[in-house]
From TrEMBL, chains A, B:
Residues annotated for substrate binding in this entry: 149, 174, 200, 250, 278
Keywords assigned by UniProt, alphabetized: Amino-acid biosynthesis, Diaminopimelate biosynthesis, Lysine biosynthesis, NADP, Nucleotide-binding, Oxidoreductase
Cross-referenced SUPFAM superfamilies: Glyceraldehyde-3-phosphate dehydrogenase-like, C-terminal domain, NAD(P)-binding Rossmann-fold domains
Protein name as catalogued: Meso-diaminopimelate D-dehydrogenase
Enzyme category, top tier: oxidoreductase
């Protein structure tokens, strides 16, 4: 059986994660990495893979079954997504929640025009967490859903700290507050403020001679990012930051509690992830959905999709018969 | 908008649970209960619902959009399922794992003949647990999946005890062993024996003058049901059994641990349920899938399906646009 030919667009943490995930799926092969850098300058792990400049992406039209877009949601994907969906089946991890409807519409128009399948917003949130929200809410119609993130590194918050004067480097962890998680699990459906759900732990390397008290104050008072949270700031050396905080763990919980019947029987549905590597896990989800896109396209389907539109059986290497026999 | 018209076939714990679940879904209404008893003798909770003998089920052909089959998997469903799928869209909770392929084939033939949709093996295991197995295995291709059940009442095991001479009544709880769950969560991918995963707690009401020591020995040595487990037997009065053990709680865990990348980063995916009422929760899942069956049939689809074949968006009362905007 011929393998599903995967292309990667954008070779950062997620791109490398996709490369590693493809290695672990025997029905797939990585055939090309597309980049906006000088392709020769990009060092990839796999031998025999084409490195192609983004401007030449259409030369891959007959060589790639599914493109996995690994660019950022802020500026890369809104432009790239619809362009690529016109010519390739594609998967991305678009995660700017507020702009999903608009982005979906753009990809849908392009993908329908090109008769391609584009599955957007794939990963774990949006992605696996969204799936757990929809399943849980469809079953327990009356109830409350809670999402907690962490403990894990937030790139956005780390970047915000790095932009402060006198800061050389920084890592920020989002940490769910165990007491809030327990209150939710109890089924009491509490109303929780932002501050009650998560706290923020910052590890900061200051420039020599910088005003640490001012840095700490600036972080803690930063609107949107930190002001609404209990935030701790710990100053560390560059070496310490590298040694202790260079991994990218993450995770979180989706919990729905609700009731059924006339007597109000209570139920708790909980989904949790504990991830050593956020980009490698996200990439593994992307690759599973690439299989679904390939199958849908082969079946004549086209247009934009999200995880809500994909039957779970399409994600598995196993046949429908095997799945019914072995894991149903 | 007209409501989805639901029929219930078989009015026991699950049938009553479906009736209660339909009450909580405003896009549905219960229109008929089908029974093999004398319909007049069946007391149901909802007013204005037809009670129809099973032999007259075809009189409901134009009145019911989806039949929810609430009979047992051992003898009821294998006969009823294909018969009903020929004439009605239907959902069931067939859970004899070993016979799923055969049952699926029978329902598929009938449903295709009648141009109806039949979704089989819906509930939480098979059902939600199966979904979590397939998602987790499709993402973490290399890893191990574990399912734990409980703490909850097993009807099959309770019945087995009740058949012992001198036993008046009994309830059996399946209990996951916390130490095993913790070993699994650690990511060590342990090989666990049957005895290491679950224990069995039995509450037994003995007939007056019965040989309790013999009853306890008979339970503990019963092959398949108890011999492979650590089992506790507690004798209680009939009153105590009613007061303390008349609820039907259940739940459990599906945990997959596995690794990604070349350095073997570890990940833990965990799904858990904690249910006050096993039949009411199962019924709530059935009702959500009835919505999917209705939509698929309206869209011209037919044949047998399982939860693996159903896109999650079909389960929700919300439109695709709302889902993308609100919970993706």
């Amino acid at each position: 059986m011929s393998k599903i030919r995967i292309g990667i667009v954008g070779y950062g943490n997620i791109g490398r994660g996709v490369e590693l995930a493809v290695e672990r799926n025997e029905d797939m092969e990585l055939v090309a990495v597309v980049t906006r850098r000088d392709p020769k300058s990009v060092q990839i792990l796999t031998e025999g893979v084409k490195k192609v400049h983004f401007d030449d992406i259409l030369t891959l039209k007959d060589e790639v079954d599914v493109m996995i877009l690994c660019g950022g949601s802020a500026t890369d994907l809104p432009v790239m997504g619809p362009e690529i969906a016109k010519h390739f089946n594609m998967i991305d991890s678009f995660d700017t929640h507020a702009k999903i409807p608009e982005y979906f519409a753009d990809v849908d128009t392009a993908a329908n025009e090109g008769k391609k399948v584009g599955i957007i917003s794939v990963g774990w949130d949006p992605g696996m967490f969204s799936l757990n929200r929809i399943y849980a809410e469809s079953i327990l119609v009356q109830g409350s859903t809670y999402t907690f993130w962490g403990k894990g590194v937030s790139q956005g918050h780390s970047d915000a700290i790095r932009r402060i004067e006198g800061v050389k480097n920084a890592i920020q962890y989002t940490v769910p507050i165990e007491e809030a998680v327990e209150r939710v699990r109890s089924g009491s459906e509490p109303e929780l403020s932002t501050r009650e759900k998560h706290l923020r732990e910052c590890y900061v390397v200051a420039e020599e001679g910088a005003d640490k008290a001012l840095i700490e104050k600036t972080i803690k008072e930063m609107p949107n990012y930190f002001a609404d949270y209990d935030t701790t700031v710990t100053f560390v050396s560059e070496e310490e930051l590298k040694a202790e905080h260079s991994k990218m763990p993450h995770g979180g919980f989706v919990i729905r509690t609700g009731e059924t019947g006339r007597e109000g029987n209570k139920h708790v549905i909980e989904y949790s992830l504990k991830l050593d590597s956020n980009p490698e896990f996200t990439s593994s989800v992307l690759v599973a959905y690439a299989r679904a896109a390939y199958r849908l396209a082969n079946n004549g389907d086209c247009g934009a999709k999200t995880v809500f539109d994909i039957a779970p059986g399409l994600l598995s290497m196993k046949s429908a018969e095997q799945l019914r026999k072995e894991i149903l």
